[in-house]
Amino acid sequence: RFETVEQAPPDPILGVTQAFRADEDDRKLNLGVGAYRNDDLQPVVLDVVRKAELRVVEQKNNKEYLPIDGFAPFNKVSAELMFGADSELLASGKIVTLQSLSGTGSLRVGAAFVNRFFPGAKVYIPNPSWGNHKNIFADAGVDVAQYKYFDPETIGLDFSGMMADLESAPEGSVVILHACAHNPTGIDPTVEQWKEVLEICQRKGFLPFFDSAYQGFASGDLITDAFAVRMFADAGLEMLVSQSYAKNLGLYGERVGALHCVAKDEGNAKRALSQLKRLARALYSNPPTTGARIVAEVVGDPELFEEWKGEMMGMAGRIKEVRQQLVDCLKQKSPNRSWDFITDQIGMFSYTGMSNAQVENMTNKHHVYMTKDGRISLAGLSSGKVEYLANAIVDSFDN
Ligand code: LMR
Question: pTM of the predicted model, to two decimals?
Answer without folding.
Answer: 0.96
